[in-house]
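sry for the spam today, last one i promise. struct tokens for design, 162 residues
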């Protein structure tokens, strides 16, 4: 199990999909991409989906997510994404009262129970006390992480070439 903290954007696309009965239907799908801005998120989802979808598609919505971190499972069975809300418990020293702060995570797993196990595994070694407030399956199809492209020392971006 590995985790990744980044700026995450949820992207919704629509495209025409050929169904099992041979009919075509316009379907929406949701993805998450690692990007620094809305325009980069649109560029990244367009690049990623171009290799999976042969026809035209539209990016119909992009929104910033509240995921602090994403936990990636290392198994092939992990084909679903779950939103997990954890409450971290601290003690206010002045009032001596319990304080809870909520943090959202995205967890990759094959089942609901697998998602809970993956959360517990990812939180092993956490110094603070926490409670899993909720875990819910999402409609996300996949998560695309930023991949660094290695360049040769003499390669220059297009805007530098003259």
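last one done:
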């Amino acid at each position: 199990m590995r985790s990744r903290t980044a700026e995450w954007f949820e992207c919704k696309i629509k495209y025409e999909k050929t169904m099992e009965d041979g009919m075509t239907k316009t379907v929406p799908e949701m993805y998450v991409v690692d990007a620094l801005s809305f325009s980069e998120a649109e560029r990244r989802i367009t690049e990623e989906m171009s290799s999976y979808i042969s026809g035209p598609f539209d990016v119909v919505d992009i929104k910033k997510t509240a995921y602090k971190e994403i936990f990636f499972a290392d198994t092939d069975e992990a084909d679903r994404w779950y939103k997990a809300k954890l409450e971290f418990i601290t003690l206010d020293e002045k009032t001596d009262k319990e304080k809870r702060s909520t943090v959202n995570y995205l967890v990759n797993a094959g089942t609901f129970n697998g998602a809970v196990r993956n959360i517990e595994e990812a939180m092993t070694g956490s110094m603070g006390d926490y409670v899993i407030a909720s875990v819910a399956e999402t409609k996300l199809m996949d998560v695309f992480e930023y991949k660094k492209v290695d360049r040769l020392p003499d390669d220059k971006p297009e805007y530098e070439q003259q």
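The mean pLDDT is 88. ok im logging off now
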